[in-house]
Amino acid sequence: MNKVLLLITTDCSEKKAKKIAKLILKKKLAACVSLKEIYSIYEWQGKIEEVREVEIIIKSKPELKKTLIVFLQKMTSHNIPQIIYKKFNSEKKYLKWVNKALSN
């Protein structure tokens, strides 16, 4: 398969986001995890919320999607975690690196 899974979630704590990223890598669920500070504005329970969060961008193999989702649902600080994903075509050398990084 010539696709890379890109999965995006968030956490309200930088410390927790780093912990999640490191565990994902340690468990070989992703080849790379990027963290980015963001400012989110959304409606929650009838009120407009404004919060600083850390966006967690996970690059993995499509066949690990379900395992990643279950892991993130357990690890995130949010009641309803943002977990969005899509499969993307990838440049061949990057795809090869992802597959090699996730091989046992």
Structure, described:
The protein has a single domain (3-101), classed as 2-Layer Sandwich (Alpha-Beta Plaits). The chain has helices at 14-26, 65-75, 92-101, and strands at residues 3-11, 32-44, 47-60, 84-89. The protein has a four-stranded antiparallel sheet, with helices on one face. The model has no long low-confidence stretch (mean pLDDT 94). It has 104 residues and is of the alpha+beta class. 33% of the residues lie in helices and 40% in strands.
Any chance you could write out the topology, listing elements then pairs?
Elements: E1 3-11, H1 14-26, E2 32-44, E3 47-60, H2 65-75, E4 84-89, H3 92-101
Antiparallel strand pairs: 1-3, 1-4, 2-3
Helix tally equals 3
Which architecture per CATH?
A: 2-Layer Sandwich
**Major sheet details:** 4 strands, antiparallel
What's the CATH topology name? Alpha-Beta Plaits
CATH class: Alpha Beta
Amino- and carboxy-terminal Cα gap: 18 Å
Note the overall shape: elongated
Helical content stands at 25-40%
Please state the structural category: alpha+beta
Number of domains: 1
Strand content: 35-45%
| Spatial ordering of strands, largest sheet | 2-3-1-4
